Structures are given as C-alpha cells and as structure tokens.
Amino acid sequence: MSYKDKSAQMRAELRAMNKLIPQTSAAFAGLSKAAKEEGTLSDKEREYIALAIGISQRCEPCISFHVEALQKTDATRADLSALLAMCIQMGGGPALMYAAHALAAWDEMAG
Hints:
Blueprint: H1 3-20, H2 22-37, H3 43-56, H4 60-71, H5 77-110
C-alpha cells in the first residue's frame, strides 16, 4: 500500500474514532492547534520536530502525516536528509528503519 493510501486509511480511521470519542478528539485538536501557534518556531521547524519524534517513536502514520505537512513548507529533500541523519545518530538501528520509511514517503508524495 502506498504512503498516500496509508494516510487516507488512517484519516478514515481517525474520523471514525473522532465520532466515537468527540470530546477527547476535540481536546487533542485544541492541543495540536495551541502547540502550532505558541512560541517562535516556524511551521517547518515544528514539522522537523514532529517528524523526528514520529521516527523515534516508530509511528508510521505520524511519519506519513508529517512528511506531507513538511512538504507544504519550503523544506527540501536535502533538508530531510539532515533530519534523517540526526534521527539515525540518536536512535540507532530502529531509527534507521523508520528513517527509510520517511524517505520513501517523501519520494512518493513529492512525485
């Protein structure tokens, strides 16, 4: 399954969960909105952090979502490579595996 398809499937699953637990979902959405509005970091810097955490936590849906969001900034594939190198340096073999997912998602979504 492609990363685009995986993202679409995850979004559908999240919509179903949002209907089941709307207050929790709304609270999480509020937290996300506040985290993106506070502070001095740019959208690109925030997405770098989110992607790095997604890789380190081994969350493939997070990787897809944040690669997609990162591509909406002025980030480049070269920028991504520096982020992936740091993830691998800090996280070792498991980070290497999920960094490869992030690169594959980038290349698919950029194409």
